[in-house]
Each structure stands twice: as C-alpha cells, then as structure tokens.
Design goal:
The chain has a single domain (30-211), classed as Urease accessory protein UreF (Orthogonal Bundle). It contains 11 helices and no strands. Helix 4 packs antiparallel against helix 5 (82-91) and helix 4 packs antiparallel against helix 8. Helices cover 66% and strands 0% of the residues. The termini are far apart. It has 221 residues and is mostly helical.
C-alpha cells in the first residue's frame, strides 16, 4: 500500500472495493453456472485435470473469456455507451443458456454493486455491468479484467471439482497454472476494440447447446 494524500487513499479504497466486487463470494449466483462444462464432463470430453486445463485455456483465449474481456474493457472507458454494449453482448451469445447466464448474473451484479458504488442498477449483461460499476474506481483496466477472468476461471474449476475426481488442492493448483494466460489476455483486452471481437470455441458452444437437453443437471448452464 502506498502512503500519501487523499488520492492515494481513494485509489487504495478503490482497489479493495474492486476485489470485493469481483470476489467469487459476491452474490451473482455464479456457482450455479458452468457454461456447458457439465455436458463436456458428462460426455467425457473433459475427464481429468489435463483436459480441464485445456478446456479452460480454450474458453479463455477463444471463447466467452475473450469476448467478455473485450466487452468489459470497452465498458470501462470514459463515455462508454453501455446500452449499445449490452445489445452487443446479447448478440454474441450463441445459445439461450449462455444469454440467460450473462443476463441473470449481470442483473444480480448491477443490483448489489449499485448499493456500494452508486452506479446504475439497471440490468445488463455481466461484463457490461462490471465495467459500468468499476469504471470510477481508478484501477488499471488490465487489473479489472484480470480479476474478472480469474473469477470466471475459478467458478469453472469449482464446478469441475464437484463433478470430476478432482480434489480442491488439485483444482487450486490448476487455477494457479492459468494465471500467466489470464494476465496476458487481460493486457491484450485492455486496449481492444469492437473490431477485435470474435470467438472460435466451437466445442464450448456445442456443449452449451447440448446442456439444454440433459435430463439431469446440477448447473443451470
């Protein structure tokens, strides 16, 4: 922590509030969603730590991780058109479950974050809600994006721990190995624009679509 005047205090307070907002304990219901990973595990596409790690890297680099990171980066910028970005976020959801996930989590995040930040409480997609609430905290965009992606990855790891023969310790080790990739992705997304949007995680999209027809499900997506 730095020492000094009011600016230092405001910046440090913003840093702590950012950690609070992007903590897995923040009430967005994230624990109920798995972005199609449940079907991938049930089908055998993901069956151990190695295949889970590869799945997560692909989702982060080429799937919803990247698109959310770019949308979040654009939502953090001064003068951002959050209504237009919400429309864009909705359009990027290729399955009904994925759309439900980002809208329900976004609404929950916006509702609670507004009480802490005084920002808009109207429901929008999750990355837009996060950017809108965190824009005034004075934190580097790459740091905001990195914490967001880390939380998303943690949620999926925790989903796998419940489903696979994968203990908590192994899950934490796996999450730690993703840190360099998350930091690189966050740094790249921080300066990205709408032209950089685009995903190619076909397996994850198929998993989300097929999850809708599973007879027995633990997770909502």
């Amino acid at each position: 922590m730095g020492t000094g005047g009011p600016l230092d205090t405001a910046t440090e307070t913003g840093a702590l509030l950012l950690v609070q907002l992007l903590s897995p304990a923040f009430p967005t219901g994230a624990f109920a969603y798995a972005q199609g990973l449940e079907w991938a595990m049930d089908s055998g596409a993901v069956q151990d730590a190695a295949s889970l790690a590869q799945w997560l890297r692909d989702v982060l680099d080429h799937g919803s991780g990247w698109s959310d990171a770019v949308l979040l980066a654009m939502s953090l910028r001064q003068g951002a058109d959050h209504a237009a970005l919400n429309d864009l976020a909705r359009a990027l959801c290729l399955t009904a479950e994925r759309l439900t996930e980002t809208l329900e989590q976004g609404a929950a995040f916006a509702r609670t974050a507004a009480l802490l930040t005084g920002t808009d409480a109207r429901p929008v997609a999750l990355p837009v809600a996060v950017g809108r609430a965190c824009a005034a905290l004075g934190q580097p965009p790459a740091q905001v994006i990195g914490l967001y992606l880390h939380g998303q990855a943690l949620n999926l790891v925790q989903a796998a721990v419940r489903f696979l023969p994968l203990g908590q310790s192994e899950g934490q080790r796996l999450l730690a190995t993703l840190s360099p990739a998350i930091l690189r992705l966050a740094a790249r997304a921080a300066t990205a624009t709408e032209d950089d949007l685009g995903t190619c995680a076909i397996g994850a999209e198929i998993a989300q679509a097929r999850h809708e027809t599973m007879q027995t499900r633990i997770f909502r997506t």
